[in-house]
Amino acid sequence: MSGKLYLVPNTLDFGVADAEVDLQAVLPLHAIQIAARLGYWAAENAKTTRAFLKRVDAVTPLTQPLQSLQITELPRPPKGQTAGKTAGDQSKAWSELLAPTHAGHDVGLISEAGLPAIADPGAHLVAAAHAEGIEVVPLSGPSSLLLALAASGLNGQSFAFVGYLPVDAAARSARIRELEALSLRQQQTQLMIETPYRNEALLQALLTQLKPQTRLSVSCGLSLAQGWTRSATAAQWRAKPQSLPDKVPAVFALLAG
Asked: For residue 44, with 0-12 CB atoms within 10 Å meaning exposed, 13-18 middle and 19 or more buried, which class applies?
C-alpha cells in the first residue's frame, strides 16, 4: 500500500525575531497531530523544519525521536537559474523525495512559512506525486496571500498573485504600471510580495506610480500580535504616509478603479 504526500502548513512567524506565535492559535490540532507522526519530510530547510517539529512536540509528542526523522531538503536550482526552469532537469531528485511512499510511508512537505506549494518550490514535488499516482493530502493552515486578500476589502472574486517585482527601479516602475492597467481592464486584484528589507522601497515605488484612485492594501505581520492591514487609495496613502518594518513579511495588493 502506497504512502501519501501530506502538505503540512507552517506558521507565518518565520524569521521574525521575538514574535513566535502559539502553534495552536495558528494551526489546527489535526494538522499538528499528523505532523507529529510523520517520519519522512521534504523541506526547504532541514534546520528550520527541526525547529518547527520541536514546537509540534510541545503540543503532541512526536512518535519518533527528532534525531531519527529523515528530513531531506528540496532540490535547489543551479546558481543563476530559477526553480521553474530547472524542475524538469531535476525530475529524478524530486522523485527520490517520494521514494518512502512506495514503501508505504507517508511523507510531509513543509514550506518555510504558510501553505506548501503556494508561492513555494514545493509545487514541483506535488506535481511529481501526481505523476507517480501518489495521493496528495493538503492540510488546513494559514496562507499569507489569502489572509491578506480577505483583509484587504479588494476584489476577492478575481485576483492574481504576481510574486516579486523587479529589483531594478525602472523595470519595477514599468511592471507596476503594467499591473495597474491589467487590474483596471479586468477589475482584478493584483497580489505581490517582497523581501522584508525591501518592503519600504516597494511601497514607495507603488505610491509613486499608482494613480490617485487606485486602491492599495498592505498586510504586515499577519497572524502575529503586531500584525495589521491598511487599505486606502494611493492618494490617501500619500496624504497619510506609513512606514513599513524591514524585518517583518508583508503582502501588497492593488485594485485599479
From this structure: buried
